[in-house]
Write a structure and sequence with these properties.
By secondary structure, the protein is of the alpha+beta class. 39% of the residues lie in helices and 18% in strands. The chain has an 8-stranded mixed beta sheet. The protein has a 3-stranded antiparallel beta sheet with strand order 4-3-14, with no helix packed on it. A two-stranded antiparallel sheet has the order 2-15. It starts with a strand and ends with a helix. The chain binds adenosine-5'-diphosphate and magnesium ion.
């Protein structure tokens, strides 16, 4: 029998406000332990939290970004539990009245375009961190993170595979960076993800879910969900039952392990925080934020498809970050409008080089102008695609700045002189009578051999289209 997976993600995003959500302490990552924790963050008696307006604005921007219902009134609540990194004994969060209500995000998944529903997004404070190393068996507490503003984004169980979940997470990552509300740095914990996973037979009710807590990279999200789907299928096929529980992903062993079952789950005793007034959003605040929004990925993707004739998949890759999209558009301008070659070069050579060197597009050593120049020289027949790749590598390693100057100084101009190419073709044919005979008697595959020989003799510079045409003509039997 076939199984289908059902996945919903809860994504925690640290907002990039300069100070914390309820105190004036700085939120900078990597500061000396406990150097950014005020009396409020420490939960000292007699202190009062004050809401940071920048965190509210960031939540509004997100709400606009997912076309959500934004609550005119939202309420902070206390989520009560004990943990050493939570000195107040409760986390300030939002429960019944979150600031952002239902919205949606369009993603480009393995099955094509899909709209994923977002149930809600609420504001809360981050907890501190327990440090289990360096203390000779003791645990240290760093409260720098306590009170850092978080936006928790809860998706509907609309995702059907690990790959689709990653596509959604990437879309969230792209969106929060376009909105400039978070750096989205997963390695530093600025974006963390809880993955809810269940399986069922198509058409059945939702199955019992497990929640994998705090997965901290795109790769681990994919692997953890894949593992968990298979674990649940195996369990059910063996006649077992899935228990609702919280699990942890162990990247070293690539498996998920039970942390606590539903019965052991905390009862958080949520109640409205009496220290904080409800948040009221005015129409003016909303209009103000709306006016400041940049073009967002979904709109940009549509525009790239309409204006540049790109397919959805390519457009989705290019709009993944604002910087990459800007690079693409600058290259198109520099290449005099050759959008498709620009897209192919960026998704091929540029991204491959960046990935290999673990670099961001903002540090790409080949400028959009240089890439555009290169593409223009392929288009006008000055160089072949193959030579262009060599030149790209030369530009990448800083061996030259100007594309035309590089072509000239290296003598790479493509040879399009028909007489010259014809002579090379004749010479190759004369030197390989056996292969010529074999080709003419039906060994079509040898054609590539002849092309290769001619290209070799021209040191890669012969115009490949002309070489092909001449070889076809001269190798034809009779
Ligand atoms: P809770 O109140 O326990 O946190 P929610 O209803 O808020 O539960 O759901 C939390 C997350 O779990 C959401 O992202 C939701 O899409 C997802 N989810 C809920 N039910 C299922 C299910 N049966 N299978 C997979 N994911 C689910
Ligand atoms: Mg939840």
């Amino acid at each position: 029998m076939t199984w289908e997976a059902v996945i919903g993600l809860e994504v925690h995003v640290q907002l990039n406000t300069a100070s914390k959500i309820f105190s004036g302490s700085a939120t900078r990552f990597g500061a000396a332990a406990n150097s950014q924790a005020s009396l409020i963050d420490l939960g000292m008696p007699g202190t009062l939290p004050v809401v940071n307006a920048a965190a509210i604005r960031a939540a509004l921007r997100f709400g606009l970004g997912i076309e959500a219902e934004i609550a005119e009134r939202s309420v902070f609540a206390r989520k009560n539990y004990f943990y050493p990194d939570l000195p107040k004994g409760y986390q300030i969060s939002q429960m019944e009245e979150p600031i952002v209500g239902a919205g949606h995000l369009d993603i480009e998944g393995p099955e094509g375009s899909k709209r994923v529903r977002i149930i809600r997004a609420h504001l809360e404070e981050d907890a501190g961190k327990s440090l289990h190393t360096d203390f000779a068996g003791m645990t240290g507490i760093d409260l720098n993170r306590a009170g850092t503003p978080l936006l928790e984004i809860v998706s509907a169980p609309d995702l059907a595979s690990a790959q689709e979940a990653v596509a959604y997470l990437r879309a969230i990552h792209g969106l929060i960076r376009y909105l400039d509300i978070s750096d989205g740095n997963m390695a530093e914990g600025s974006m963390r993800c809880d993955c809810n996973v269940s399986v069922r037979h198509p058409g059945e009710e939702l199955g019992t879910r497990c929640e994998i807590k705090n997965v901290n990279s795109f790769k681990f999200v994919e692997k953890a969900i894949q593992y968990e789907i298979q674990r649940q299928i195996d369990l059910l096929e063996d006649g077992g039952k899935v228990r609702q529980e919280t699990r942890l992903y162990d990247a070293e062993r690539n498996e998920t392990r039970s942390m606590r079952s539903k019965e052991e789950a905390n009862d958080y005793r949520y109640f409205p925080d009496p220290d904080l007034l409800p948040v009221h959003i005015t129409a003016a605040m909303l209009a103000d934020e709306r006016a400041r929004l940049p073009e967002l990925p979904t709109a940009k993707k549509q525009r790239f498809m309409a204006d540049y004739g790109l397919i959805a998949y390519d457009a989705a890759i290019l709009v993944a970050s604002r910087e990459l999209a800007d690079y693409f558009e600058a290259a198109v301008r520099a290449s005099a409008g050759q959008a498709k070659p620009c897209a192919n070069w960026i998704m091929g050579e540029v991204l491959a080089h960046l990935n290999r060197e673990e670099m961001e597009i903002t540090h790409c050593p080949v400028s959009p102008q240089q890439l555009g120049d290169l593409i223009r020289r392929i288009q006008d027949g000055t160089i072949s695609g193959k030579i262009a790749k060599q030149l790209f590598s030369a530009l990448w390693s800083g061996e030259g700045q100007d594309v035309d100057a590089l072509i000239d100084s290296r003598g790479l101009r493509q040879e399009s002189d028909a007489g010259l190419i014809s002579a090379l073709v004749d010479a190759v044919i004369a030197d390989h009578p056996d292969n010529v005979a074999a080709y003419r008697s039906g060994k079509d595959k040898l054609f590539g051999f002849f092309v290769g020989e001619v290209m070799k003799r021209s040191r890669g510079k012969a115009n490949p289209a002309q070489v092909n045409a001449l070889l076809k003509e001269k190798l034809a039997p009779g």
